[in-house]
Amino acid sequence: MNINRIDLNLFAVFDAIYTAGNLTKAADVLCITQPAVSNSLARLRDLLNDPLFVRTGHTMSPTPVAQNLIGPARQALELLRTSVLQSREFNPAVAEKTFQFACRDLIEASMLPRLIASIESQAPAITISNCDINRNNALNAMASGQLDFYADSEMLTDPYLAKQKIAEDHLVVVGRRNHPAFQQPMTLENFLACGHIKVTQQPEQPCEVDIELARLGHQRRIAMQSHHYLTIPSVLVKTDLLACLPSHLAKHYDLAISALPFTMQPQHYYVYWHVSANEDPAHRWVRQQLADIAQAFLAPQVARHAA
């Protein structure tokens, strides 16, 4: 028997005939015509190489093959019905599910703790996992279901991706406490006189700070490159290097902080997902948690701009 030929609808018809004991009654239960029931039964007989039912007076009596099959068939149909219902409904209090994120250390340290705290109180059996994935592979991973969310400060444009803004921030200059460059208001001259730590995922490419400096006709001296924001403060406190970090990260460390001596556009952070997950109720629920958390980041920005 070729398993690929199996039509699950045939087993719904099989169950209806077994229960009703009559093709006409089975058709009424299924809301289809009696010839359609007869056709489905013929297909299933051919598939299983067994008559399944034999006529006894006005009743269709099941054969031994049908009697052995009815239990597993009903279990499979019930499992399918339950799965369909669960796919349309989501109860966070009892849901057991893992959501796979891919985001850099900065977002992992700032957003995920708040998300986990929100979820833990409402959905104790939901798990959040974060992995490292190349942004070029993110779309395929989300399309295949291996990845639920991808978060980044860089803008991704693809018709199969949906996005939601989760935060906005601006860069500041940071260095160790009592650093001489911070004794007076930070000037471009003092900024360029120091060595710098560059944070980038693509070492061969200039970052936003270097692009803006090049536009102004300047270049800073890069003494160190790192993939991770969270390693930078521990280097700064032991050296005279400077770094440009997001303000909401810098304020958590015992560092000297100054505004940039040149103008930079704010940084925007987005979470992305594949459009195929738009209507999934569990996915929608997590997105709502993210939206609620984002208000804590975005509301102060709105207030600041309004002022």
TrEMBL record:
<dbReference type="InterPro" id="IPR036388">
    <property type="entry name" value="WH-like_DNA-bd_sf"/>
</dbReference>
<dbReference type="InterPro" id="IPR037402">
    <property type="entry name" value="YidZ_PBP2"/>
</dbReference>
<protein>
    <submittedName>
        <fullName>LysR family transcriptional regulator</fullName>
    </submittedName>
</protein>
<keyword id="KW-0805">Transcription regulation</keyword>
<dbReference type="InterPro" id="IPR050389">
    <property type="entry name" value="LysR-type_TF"/>
</dbReference>
<comment type="similarity">
    <text>Belongs to the LysR transcriptional regulatory family.</text>
</comment>
<dbReference type="GO" id="GO:0003700">
    <property type="term" value="F:DNA-binding transcription factor activity"/>
</dbReference>
<keyword id="KW-0238">DNA-binding</keyword>
<dbReference type="Pfam" id="PF03466">
    <property type="entry name" value="LysR_substrate"/>
</dbReference>
<dbReference type="GO" id="GO:0003677">
    <property type="term" value="F:DNA binding"/>
</dbReference>
<keyword id="KW-0804">Transcription</keyword>
<dbReference type="InterPro" id="IPR036390">
    <property type="entry name" value="WH_DNA-bd_sf"/>
</dbReference>
<dbReference type="InterPro" id="IPR000847">
    <property type="entry name" value="LysR_HTH_N"/>
</dbReference>
<dbReference type="InterPro" id="IPR005119">
    <property type="entry name" value="LysR_subst-bd"/>
</dbReference>
<feature type="domain" description="HTH lysR-type">
    <location>
        <begin position="6"/>
        <end position="63"/>
    </location>
</feature>
<dbReference type="Pfam" id="PF00126">
    <property type="entry name" value="HTH_1"/>
</dbReference>
